[in-house]
């Protein structure tokens, strides 16, 4: 087997040592190249990020921070971490940056550790209305260790109810107020959250995991001037390796660093930190700013096509990289829609909608994102086609002769579309 582009020269060694795992890699590359990747929390990293991630830096234990490690021999990896920190500070205008969290959830754990004690009240967006498991769900440490108070969206507009946020804050006096979500498509009013946090003397934490790449690309406003602390992932729109990061005001730097190490993590993943540094450099460019703007334009174009094809966009549309679509009036649930799309070569996820009568495992909606397709070079016209293909797949009755023919037809159209602008194009 010839090493596929972007796997690097080491692929032949992997193939010889473990052909089964080598096959997994090639199959995943084929999957990415052969279909539409619309999961809003996924993207396609650059070859440079992949090279840093799969590097000799994985060998080094480096507990602690640059210049203050618990192991010797860290002079070289210190350079990588310092580059990542300084590049992130320049990119976002942050006072302090910690690039060691292994994931967004790990970063979120560190925020709790830095600012709250078990039992403290935490005010965060309700999970069924777009929040995250680590914002107080009972199945997460956040809901077991802290007293979670959920806020919601308006039933009529499906936008965050800032009046309710303030009322709940005044009643419960939370230690932390969380702004951020995983299935909310509109810009968040960080100034309003800051004012509420100041009124009740709470820490304002912005979980920017989903939209930090749009902030880097100056496509949406930054939470930096308003938040005490910001957690984020380095994948998603930011287009780096899978991982987490934290940014905070200088006054909170020591608390945040101690909450990551030694409280919640040991040795950092130095290969991942080097890959984060590469991604930050890539994001600090005019090309990335154009990319971020295109991500938003593509999400809006795709959403318009979905609405014109009979779906309802929650909150009426999107300002970001993702959209949430209500399928309930079509007589199709989210789980069924996800399966039909998969059969047509379209990867997306079922998702609850606000005030959803269906259980989460079934859901009444789907969530779509434009980050990965934009990386492939899709424009607004392409994205409108994508929206139409998704809508057709959702409404094709799999298991019937006509439905299966339609899904086969859509799969062919998907293959032709991605063939013109593939993921990781061949040399």
Query: What is the CA-based Rg, rounded?
Result: 22 Å
How many structural domains are formed by the residues?
Answer: 2
Cα end-to-end separation: 16 Å
As a percent range, the share of strand residues is 5-15%
Mean pLDDT: 96
Q: From the 3D coordinates, which CATH architecture of the largest domain would you assign?
A: 3-Layer(aba) Sandwich
Q: Give the beta-strand count.
A: 15
Regions with little confidence, pLDDT below 50 for 5+ residues = none
Main sheet: strands, sense, barrel? 7 strands, mixed
CATH classification, class level of the largest domain: Alpha Beta
Residues in helix, %:
40-55%
The tally of helices reads: 16
Q: Which class best fits the helix and strand makeup? A: alpha/beta
Q: Give the overall shape.
A: globular
CATH level 4 superfamily of the largest domain:
Type I PLP-dependent aspartate aminotransferase-like (Major domain)
From the structure above, extract its key features.
single chain, 427 residues, alpha/beta, Aspartate Aminotransferase, domain 2, Aspartate Aminotransferase, domain 1, 2 domains, seven-stranded mixed beta sheet, four-stranded antiparallel beta sheet, globular
């Amino acid at each position: 087997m010839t090493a596929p582009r972007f796997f690097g020269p080491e692929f032949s060694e992997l193939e010889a040592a473990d052909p089964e795992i080598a096959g997994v890699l090639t199959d995943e590359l084929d999957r990415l190249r052969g279909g539409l990747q619309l999961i809003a929390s996924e993207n396609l990293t650059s070859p440079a990020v992949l090279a840093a991630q799969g590097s000799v830096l994985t060998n080094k234990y480096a507990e602690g921070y640059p210049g203050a490690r618990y192991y010797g021999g860290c002079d070289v990896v210190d350079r990588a971490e310092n580059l990542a920190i300084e590049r992130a500070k320049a990119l976002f205008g942050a006072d302090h940056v910690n690039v060691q969290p292994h994931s967004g959830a790990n970063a979120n754990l560190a925020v709790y550790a830095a600012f709250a004690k078990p039992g403290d009240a935490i005010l965060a967006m309700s999970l069924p209305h777009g929040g995250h498991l680590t914002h107080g769900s009972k199945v997460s440490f956040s809901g077991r260790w802290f007293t979670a108070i959920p806020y919601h969206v308006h039933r009529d507009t499906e936008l965050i109810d800032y009046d309710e946020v303030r009322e709940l804050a005044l009643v419960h006096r939370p230690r932390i107020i969380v702004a951020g979500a995983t299935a909310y498509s509109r810009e968040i009013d960080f100034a309003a959250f800051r004012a509420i946090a100041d009124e009740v003397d709470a820490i304002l934490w912005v979980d920017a995991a989903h939209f930090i790449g749009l902030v880097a690309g100056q496509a949406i406003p930054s939470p930096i001037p308003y938040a005490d602390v910001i957690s984020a992932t380095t994948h998603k729109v930011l287009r780096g390796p899978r991982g987490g990061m934290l940014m905070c005001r200088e006054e909170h730097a020591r608390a945040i660093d101690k909450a990551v190490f030694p409280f919640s993590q040991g040795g950092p993943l130095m290969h991942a930190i080097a890959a984060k540094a590469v991604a930050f450099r890539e994001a600090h460019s005019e090309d990335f700013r154009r990319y971020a703007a295109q991500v938003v334009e593509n999400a809006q174009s795709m959403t318009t096509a979905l609405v014109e094809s009979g779906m309802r966009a929650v909150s009426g549309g999107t300002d970001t990289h993702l959209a949430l679509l209500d399928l309930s009036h079509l007589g199709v649930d989210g789980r069924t829609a996800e399966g039909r799309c998969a059969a047509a070569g379209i990867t997306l996820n079922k998702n609850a909608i606000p005030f959803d009568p269906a259980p989460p495992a079934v859901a009444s909606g789907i969530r779509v994102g434009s980050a990965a397709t934009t990386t492939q070079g899709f424009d607004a016209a392409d994205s409108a086609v994508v929206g139409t293909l998704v809508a057709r797949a959702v409404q094709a009755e799999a298991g019937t002769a006509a439905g299966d023919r339609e899904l086969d037809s859509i799969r062919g159209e998907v293959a032709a579309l991605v063939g013109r602008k593939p993921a990781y194009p061949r040399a």
